[in-house]
Design goal:
10 helices
């Protein structure tokens, strides 16, 4: 069960939570609507079955006790005219007739029907006495004080029983109304409790599922975040144990593939770095004057030999380039050394094979051998340049040429100046001087013999 739940996708879990919430809303809403309908039905039952009948009985009781009795007493006291009393009695009797008919039309129970039957003779007696009063007023007009004195007692005697009977009916209606009201309140309380129970249960389940979902997401993501932090700190051997088949499991699998690829890349980069370090160390210590420039012809590498060469020639170079500093070659554009920078830039940009050039910089003769550098994919990375300072060599060549020209003309007095020369050039100067000196002595001896 746990494995099955863990393998559910996050999408499925979210849909399940939303479905549960919607189901709870539907149940609570339908229960509430049903409760409202039931309450409305109960209210209609109370109104139609109890309140309206109660009002009809009240109209009958008021018509007898207020209108008939009151009109009779006022006419007898001279407060009503005969016409006013007759109209009041006629309206009261019509009200009694209409209200009683509406009340009896709604009577359905046997108990209520029995009380209705019991009321009929009482109504007949009260109607008879009322009619006696009406007959006494026939033909009379104006105030008739004392005319109805003999009718008041019998009228009260006839109406009091009906009033008592109506009171019983009213009490029964009130008791039934109260009972139906209590039942409606009990039904409402039950539905209210049920609605709250369903709502709380659904909310609780939704919260539990949401917590489980968050727990299922947050923990693995925290583990992945720790793994990423470990890799960022340099630990590429970190492992993330997330045995799931959902989206989080897919992210974990992608993380593991990324970690493995990163390990391979770091191993390859480390090997390349060691190889590059060996090459750089070799280049730093070779006697050749080597520098490298990027595709924009900015110097990105200069070995010790080329720095020493430019440092030795720095004073002369500053005659042409006042701000030249041999210790700040890195970042300097190689076009700076050429008298025509645009031509130099175009040549190096389109360089696809070895290129030889001789430059005059500050009176010094410099040679430059440039080669393009490409990566394994054939993309141009820059250029490697080997420099040479032929200033001393050119000067020696000129001296030798002058000496040879003079000797050819028979002048053996010229000598190569050994000052400032070293190595091969010093040996060459000393050897040539000895040769010329020997030749000069030989020629002098021959000359003396011939004399």
């Amino acid at each position: 069960m746990t494995t099955w739940f863990a393998n559910l996708t996050i999408k499925t879990r979210l849909i399940a939570i939303f479905a549960l919430v919607i189901a709870v809303i539907v149940v609570v809403g339908s229960t509430g609507i049903q409760g409202m309908k039931q309450s409305n039905q109960n209210l209609e039952t109370v109104v139609n079955g109890r309140v309206l009948p109660f009002s009809h009985l009240k109209n009958v009781a008021d018509a007898y006790a207020v209108y008939i009795i009151d009109a009779t007493n006022k006419a007898n006291a001279g407060l009503f005219t005969a016409e006013q009393a007759s109209d009041s009695l006629r309206e009261a009797r019509q009200t009694i007739k209409d209200s009683w008919e509406m009340y009896t039309a709604g009577v359905t129970s046997a108990d209520d029907q029995l009380l209705v039957e019991q009321a009929r003779p009482l109504f007949a007696a009260a109607d008879a006495e009322t009619e006696q009063v009406q007959n006494a007023l026939i033909g009379k007009s104006g105030h008739v004080p004392g005319l109805l004195q003999d009718h008041i007692g019998p009228l009260y005697a006839a109406i009091d029983p009906i009033s008592n009977h109506l009171g019983t009916l009213l009490t029964i209606q009130l008791s039934f109304a109260r009972a139906e009201y209590n039942q409606a309140m009990a039904d409402f309380a039950t539905r209210h409790q049920f609605t709250w129970s369903i709502g709380l249960l659904g909310t609780g389940l939704a919260l539990i599922f949401a917590w489980l979902l968050l727990r299922a997401i947050v923990r693995p993501l925290r583990s992945l975040a720790d793994g990423i932090d470990a890799i960022a700190a340099g630990n590429t051997a970190v492992d993330v144990a997330v045995n799931r088949q959902d989206e989080v499991g897919q992210v974990a699998d992608s993380f593991k593939r990324m970690r493995d690829k990163l390990q391979q890349d770091l191993t390859r980069i480390s090997e390349q770095a060691r190889e590059n370090l060996r090459i750089r160390s070799a280049l730093d210590n070779v006697e050749a004057n080597v520098m490298m420039a990027d595709t924009a012809r900015n110097i990105i590498y200069a070995n010790k030999a080329v720095v020493a060469m430019f440092r030795h020639a720095q004073a002369d170079i500053r005659a042409q380039l006042p701000r030249f500093d041999a210790d700040r070659l890195i970042g300097l554009n190689i076009d700076t050394f050429h008298q025509n920078p645009a031509r130099q830039a175009d040549m190096l940009t389109n360089l696809d094979s070895v290129y030889h050039s001789t430059l005059m910089i500050g009176g010094r003769t410099m040679t430059m051998i440039a080669n393009p550098v490409f990566d394994a994919g054939g993309e141009r990375l820059g250029s490697v340049v080997q420099w040479g300072d032929r200033t001393a060599e050119v000067a020696v060549e000129k001296e030798v040429a002058n000496l040879v020209s003079a000797a050819a003309a028979g002048d053996f007095s010229h000598r190569l100046n050994p000052s400032g020369k070293e190595g091969f050039f010093l040996q060459l100067a000393e050897g040539i001087n000895k040769l010329v000196e020997t030749s000069e002595r030989g020629m002098n001896d021959v000359a003396r013999v011939l004399k």
